[in-house]
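4.2 Preliminary Data

To establish feasibility before requesting continued support, the project team ran the inverse folding procedure on a target of 479 residues. The structure was first converted into the token representation described in Section 3, and no sequence information of any kind was made available to the design step. The complete token record follows.
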């Protein structure tokens, strides 16, 4: 059965967006389509209904494709805990660690599992839309590659190269990618797609014509810059991802700490989606002190990030805020940091260390990983979340998945702010405690509906600006 590989000339070229949009566009055309990413390196993950853990982006792509998300869609997930070490999730379950030097040697088993997952998807769908990682032109990594050209060769997949024209150098990046591949890999390139374009397309046209003339690759189209499309990202929390609040309305300011090993940064998306709530991702203690709400997000390295928090001066801000009755929220790793003590022979191997002591009890890390999708009712409002952690605090349940003492709250659950009524009511209380005039608007957008609409806008953009027919056609010729 056919497939296609969406590869990027750089990280962040928009592969995930294109893959998501294609999944929806082909699903709308009545095709049985599935997303696939052989290996994702990300700390933004999600728990599927069968308890397996995959990248957030692939989870969303499966929803866009109208299929139940599962570990087949992202068989290998590497969760970096330092620059030289990653936790391995294989077919949705923890499978040890990988160190930087082992990338060439320790990955044969991962490649086999990834190819087997692709074959299974390909056998049961009309079309598999594969997303590459980074750039396929990293020829130094080509030997053990199973996510870019290695996968393309395995499945004989035609490749669509996506280039980000917003950052500049898109033509050179496309030409350079074409030029660096060996003949066998180059033969699989089927065309390119220019992404994030703003301005007059007729100015770009001669550049594309020259590029096509030189490398013989056709253009699949030019996708415009889509300002109002955000997506469950695989990348770490980064400043500038969130649009500032511009209206002359009361605002609730939220400072989210950019921990070095932030995990599940997507927890902030529903807060950002709330009209009048202004989320700033920061490492500045002054911004953390001034905000109405301070959020410590999840972390893939709780003890190391707690040390960083102390060194940054933000731990002092947390203490001052708690003493002054100003709101603080810790999510998962952030909650663990707020507890009295942490006993961690697993993630950091540090043993017993002091926490910030804002919430009670000791967090105990165990080798087995908690993966779940719990639900609760808080003040009559339904709350749903998901759990991905080794460390278990003594949560007293005074808050879903956690505890509240005064204005300091912790939860082990990710994704809880996607529960619309709960989000509004909790933020209303935060605004009151912080002395902010912000109140939730009656006609607030529902988060899941907003995300669905975004997926549809992506599909519309592809149908309008890209040659989707030709992509289906070349995919059909792949085997
Ligand atoms: N998702 C998280 O924040 C995980 C917290 C911590 N690293 C743990 O495994 O327990």
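Position-by-position output of the design step:
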């Amino acid at each position: 059965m056919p497939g296609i590989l969406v590869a990027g000339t750089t990280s962040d070229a928009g592969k995930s967006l294109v893959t998501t949009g294609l999944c929806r566009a082909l699903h709308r055309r009545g095709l049985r389509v599935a997303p696939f990413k052989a290996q994702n390196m990300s700390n933004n993950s999600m728990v599927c209904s069968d308890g397996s853990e995959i990248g957030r982006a692939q989870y969303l792509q499966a929803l866009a494709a109208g299929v139940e998300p599962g570990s087949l869609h992202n068989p290998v997930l590497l969760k970096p805990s330092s620059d030289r070490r990653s936790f391995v999730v294989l077919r949705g379950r923890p499978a040890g660690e990988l160190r930087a030097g082992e990338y060439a040697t320790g990955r044969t088993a991962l490649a086999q599992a990834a190819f087997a997952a692709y074959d299974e998807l390909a056998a049961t769908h009309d079309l598999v839309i594969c997303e590459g990682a980074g750039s396929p032109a990293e020829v130094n990594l080509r030997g053990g590659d199973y996510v870019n050209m290695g996968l393309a060769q395995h499945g004989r997949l035609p490749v669509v190269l996506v280039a980000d024209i917003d950052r500049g150098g898109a033509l050179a990046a496309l030409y350079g990618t074409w030029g660096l591949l060996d003949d066998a890999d180059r033969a699989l390139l089927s065309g390119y797609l220019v992404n994030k374009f703003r301005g007059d397309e007729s100015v770009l046209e001669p550049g594309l014509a020259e590029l096509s003339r030189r490398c013989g690759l056709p253009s699949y189209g030019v996708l415009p810059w889509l300002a109002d499309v955000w997506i469950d990202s695989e990348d770490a929390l980064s400043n500038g991802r969130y649009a500032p609040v511009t209206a002359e309305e009361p605002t609730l300011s939220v400072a989210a700490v950019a921990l070095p090993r932030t995990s599940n940064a997507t927890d902030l998306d529903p807060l950002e989606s709330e009209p009048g709530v202004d989320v700033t991702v920061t490492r500045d203690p002054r911004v953390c002190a001034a905000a109405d709400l301070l959020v410590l997000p999840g972390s893939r390295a709780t003890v190391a990030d707690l040390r960083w928090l102390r060194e940054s001066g933000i731990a002092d801000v947390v203490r001052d805020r708690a003493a002054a009755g100003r709101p603080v929220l810790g999510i998962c790793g952030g909650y663990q940091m707020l507890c009295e003590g942490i006993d961690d022979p697993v993630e950091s191997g540090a043993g017993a260390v002091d926490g910030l002591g804002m919430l009670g009890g000791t967090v105990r890390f165990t080798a087995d990983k908690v993966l779940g999708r719990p639900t609760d009712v808080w003040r009559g409002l339904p709350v749903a979340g998901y759990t991905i952690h080794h460390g278990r605090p003594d949560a007293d349940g005074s808050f879903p998945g956690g505890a509240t003492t005064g204005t300091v709250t912790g939860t082990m659950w990710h994704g809880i702010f996607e529960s619309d009524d709960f989000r509004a009511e909790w933020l209303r209380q935060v605004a009151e405690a912080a002395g902010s005039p912000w109140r939730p608007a009656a006609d607030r957008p529902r988060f899941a509906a907003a995300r669905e609409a975004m997926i549809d806008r992506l599909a519309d953009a592809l149908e309008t600006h890209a040659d989707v027919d030709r992509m289906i056609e070349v995919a059909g010729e792949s085997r």
